[in-house]
Structure formats: structure tokens, C-alpha cells
Amino acid sequence: MPDDTAELEARLEEQDEFEPPEEFVSQANVSDASVYEEFEEEWPECWERAAELLDWDEEYDTVLDDSNPPFYEWFTGGKLNASANCLDRHLDDRGDEAAIEWVGEPSDEDDRTYTYEELHREVNEFAAALKEMGVGEDDVVTMYMPMIPELPIAMLACARIGAPHSVVFAGFSADALATRMESADSEYLVTANGYFRRGDALDHYEKTREGLGDVGHNVSDVVVVDRLGEHGHGHDLESNEHYYQDLVEEQEGAEVEPVSRDAEDMLFLMYTSGTTGQPKGVKHTTGGYLAWTAWTSQAVLDVKPEDTYFCSADIGWITGHSYIVYGPLALGTTTMMYEGTPDHPERDRLWEIIEEYGATQLYTAPTAIRAFMKWGEKHPDQHDLSSLRLLGTVGEPINPKAWKWYYKHVGGEDCPIVDTWWQTETGGMMVTTLPGVNTMKPGSAGPPLPGVDARVVDTNGEEVEAGRAGYLTVQKPWPGMLRTLYQNDERYVQEYWAEYSDTDSDDPDDWVYFPEDGAKIDEDGYITVLGRVDDVLNVSGHRLGTMEIESAIVGVEGVAEAAVVGGKHDVKGEAVYAYVITEDGYEEGDEMRDRIVEGVEDAIGPIARPEAVIFTPELPKTRSGKIMRRLLEDIANDEELGNTSTLRNPDVVEDIQRKVSGD
Ligand code: WTA
To answer: Does ligand 1 have an atom closer than 6 angstroms to the CB of 574?
Structure first.
């Protein structure tokens, strides 16, 4: 009845605290609040509970070695293999159960199920192929692949032979691929000839070749997954390129003994954006990372082996690494992968998949939820989503309105929502409610996880009062943390620790991790993350450096100077605004704008495409010549401008403002 619905909406709108549903609590992996105290008392030994979720070839002798901060080591002396933990040990109990349910795009004919047995077999075969190619322990293998099962297979095959992987998001450009391969000295690449997007067979091979052409060192071998089959674009492979399918066929039935890796040996590298133009190669290790992702998957996502767990992220980002591949598979559950987009063939695609597979959890991003909201509740409402038990979000702050929409229309008001704050660098979740324990407050991620010492501080490092804005910090190390930036210890210290630490000290208490996020904390210790305080944008939950985009724009012929800021966007969260000064003799206009957009897509990828390009004769600068980004942000957001009196050129601001508002 319409009246009831209106009443319900009104009640939801006013409600700002939600208790975990009883039915959920009664079956939750973690439901006892004493876990917070226990972890505090037992720290750092509490992390043995995470390590216990894994099988070790050799037991570790030290939980935490903090003798040389911030170069912390976890579970030292221990040995294990990540692929054996994600596959072999599940064979006895779960061999015939699905490890991966893959939903391909074009039609249901393309869906594939890999049981643990089948996944184990193919990982072994591909591991054997990699070995035969000459890939040795510690050789970095780059992957540039869409959402196809061969991506996690290649990752696990690398893990099996002790070769770290470096996955480059398939939506990144050829240039981005080349930079990352060079930075990692990577001589091997696994890619695909294409993928399907909204019904079209898109080519990926040309872009790969273009990228390879720009790699300065010799690339010995390239493996190409033939995803497109008869829809392929008819390429002839080079002599050092091999079809994945041929390699695996040649190795049929091969078995490769998993290499026993030190807990601290590198499992993978993941490049992410920072303040400078150069992406950072975040290094994660085998023991700490795997323990962290397994533990958080269990405690926060409530993953159980019999679940069909669905995370809609792309494996090319950290969320997919930690919470499609490593965490869920370490726990022996069924993890889903979806190749396509949520609006193809219709805007109910995700709900259709959840209904068809009986998904038990959905982990997605606020930007997706805002799009779903826009498309309307009729889409989820027409599907039976009662298999869902828990919902999660990650990547950016979620506004209470989107939270409540998700809660009501997807969760049917009986699934807890976990709003999980973390980063590429943290390896896994850090701040979130425990779904079987804590009250939920829409818009606030929640308390730090047990054993995580996250605090909100002011510029002097003093904790702020409840309700005040400050900076998020993490004051104790944790097993899932990055260990360094690849071959750049100095930048590691500089980027993450220098701000709040006494960098001359070797006392771990003097070292504080700074994630570059602003935050608030309330009287219950709940943290609301406000967003980045450095020059990093968050576009649809994707991290992009303003410097990377600026240098792409300045590389376009006829551009003299550029400044990039984030403007608010109702679906993407933030959108790229580019303010550009042209060189004399070049005309501002559509042609120039198109070339700028193209330049950004070539250097980074379509995700970094500017929403607006604003030509201006000058940029607002301080007397010392620094660009006033705040002002440019205010203009993009159509907000009241801050103080302009310190500007060298205050008049320019009005000019720009007029242009943006279109007057
Ligand atoms: C932001 C993604 C608010 C934050 C896992 C962080 C969030 C950056 C949340 C890391 C959240 C992530 N609430 N903000 N729940 N989760 N962020 O490295 O600014 O791609 O620093 O890792 O995303 O992005 P990254």
C-alpha cells in the first residue's frame, strides 16, 4: 500500500543507527564484541589468529619483527605458498565444489564454472608453461587482462612458482602498461586478444602491442589468451608470443610443486597513483597479506565455504586482488567474476546474476550504488534477492542516502552493510564495522578493526576531539601492510611515514602511517572518512593522480600549462576538471579539447577522461607562484570562493568562473 511505503521511507530517512539483523548475528563468523578487547590485550600475538587460517609449510617463529621501523616484518621464519593455500588444501573437502563462477558477457553460453579440482589443474598447467618459458622465482610477470578466469589462473600460477605478479588494469592505456613494465623490470606479459563489452568484441591486442613497443628492455615472452575466438580481429602473433590455450594444452596433466616461500617474500606488486606523476609500485608479501585478506574476508565479509560470494570490482584493482581472488579462495568459498557491465543487456544485470546464482554477499562501490539509484528501484525489485546475507561497499565515502537505498532495495532490510575503508597499501580492510557485532551508522565506516590502531589527529599529531575534522593515521603496523615501494625504500618512508613520525627513531612507537585521507571521529569511536588530502582524485572509486593527468595534458601539442582538480559528480563521486592555458598561435576550441581528451586517454586510459576542459589565459597563483587548487575546486563545484586576496592575479578567478558557469 502506498501509504505504508511512504511511512517506511520517512522512517528510514530519519533513522541514523541500525542494529545488525538478529538472524545474521546468530550465524555470523564473529559475533562477540569481546574480540576488540582480546586483540588489544594480545597485540601483536592476536594476529596469530589470522595466520592460523593458513597452512604453513614451516611455522613462523616471530609474529612481528619491529626492530627496523617502518620496515616491519610479519610471521618471520614461516614458509608457505599462496596457491597451495588457495587451491591444494581445499581439494579433499571441496574438490568438486565451485571455486570460480564466471559470468561472461555475451550470453549464458559463455558462463564457466571452475571447481577447485579444475582450477587446480589449470593453474598447474599454466605454472608448468611459465616455468618452461624460463620464468624463475622472483621474476615479475605483468598481466594486462580483462575480467576472464585466466587472470586469476595466471596470478595463482605465478604464486605457485614464486614469481610475483603485477596486474595492470585492462582499461589503462598502452603507455601506462609500458611504464609499469619498465618500472618493475618485467620481462613477461600475459594478456588477451580482447573482451566483450556491451555486446561488442573489443580488441585488446593492438593496445598491448603498442605498449610493448615502448618498453625499453627486452620482453622475452608474451602469452595471449584467445578470448574472442571466432570474433577475433585476425592478428598474427610475433615469434615470442604464444596463445595461452596452446600452452595449457601442451602441459596437459602437468603438476608443479608449489614453491615454499618465506612469509616476507613478495607475492605481488600493484601500481597505484600518488602525488607525483610516477605511479608507485606497492609491494605485498606472501604471509602477512594472505593472512590479512583471509581474516578480513572471514570476519567482515562473513565468508563461509558454502557461500557464493560476489564482488563486482575488477581484478585489475586491489579490491579484486584481495576480495575476489586471495581472501575468498584462501577460505575455500565460491567466488564470482563478471566480465560485463551492470547495464547490459539491461539495467538489472547484476540483480539477475545474483538471483540466478543465489549470491550470498555483494561487495561493490558507492559509485555503482548511486548509478543503481538513478536507474530506479524497479530493477532490483523485480528480482528475488533473498539469497543475499550481507552487503559491502568500498572505494569512496558512501552518502547516507545511497546507504539506505542499498539497505532497503538490495538488502531488503535484513542484510548488514559493511562500509570498509582501506587502500591498495593496506592490503585489506582497516576501518569498518564487524557485521555481527556493531551498530551501523550510514555514512560512517565504523570503528577500526580489532587490533588496528587507527586514530584521527590534527596537524601536530594530537588526537582531535569527537566531531572535529582531522587526518586519519594508523599508529601500529598490521600484517597486510605494504612493505615498501618497489626498489624505492626512501620514497616509501617519505610518502607514508615522514608526516607524523620521528624518522630518526628506531622505536616503533615513534612511527605513524599516514594514508593521506581526511577523517572525523565521533564519541563512539566511529570514523567517517572525508576523502584524500593529497593530489589524488577518486573517480568512480578509481584512484588517479592529478599530476599524472596534468603531465598527459601538457604533453599535448599547443598546451602551455594545465591544472587538474576534482569536481563533485553525482554518480562518479569526483570528476576530472582540467584548466588549460594554450600556447600562442593555438586556438582554444573543440579541436583542441578533443586532442586534450585523447591525450589523457592515451597516457592513462578512458577512466581519466576530463569531464570538463576549461581554457583560461592564466591560472590563479599565489605570489610565490603556486597554483591555488582550492580555488579551482571551488569553481568546479560552483561553491563560494575562499579568500582570493593572496593571489598574484585575482581577476583571473572571475574570468574562469564565468566560463565554467557558461555566462
Ligand atoms: C578511498 C581501494 C571512504 C580513500 C580499496 C582511500 C574510501 C582510497 C573508502 C584508496 C571508504 C576507500 N570510505 N573512502 N569506505 N574506501 N576509500 O588504493 O580515499 O584504490 O585512501 O584502494 O580510496 O583507494 P585504493
So the answer is: no
Q: 280 in ligand 1 pocket by Cβ < 6 Å?
A: no
- What's the 394 CA to ligand 1 centre distance in angstroms? 7
Coil, strand or helix at 88? helix
Angle, CA 146 vertex, CA 142 and CA 151 arms, to 5°: 55
Closest CA to 361 of 394, 388, 329: 388
Q: In 10 A of CB 192, how many CB atoms?
A: 24
Distance between CA 360 and CA 378 in Å, rounded? 21
pTM score > 0.90 for this model? yes
> Could you tell me if the CB of 483 is within 6 A of ligand 1?
no
Helix, coil or strand: residue 164: coil
Percent of the chain with pLDDT strictly greater than 90:
88
> Per-residue pLDDT averaged across 218-244, rounded?
95
* Ramachandran quadrant class, 199 (left: phi over 0; alpha: psi -120 to 50; beta: rest): left
Quote the ligand 1 centre to 121 CA distance (angstroms): 35
Tell me whether strands 334-338 and 165-167 are parallel, antiparallel or unpaired.
unpaired
Question: Does the CB atom of residue 364 touch ligand 1 within 6 A?
Answer: no
Q: Indicate the length of the chain as a whole number.
A: 663
ipTM comes to 1.00
Residues 510 and 532: their CA atoms lie apart, in Å, by 24
Q: Report, as an integer, the average pLDDT of 179-184.
A: 97
Regarding the beta carbon of 543 and ligand 1, being less than 6 Å apart is answered yes
- Quote the radius of gyration of the chain (alpha carbons, Å): 25
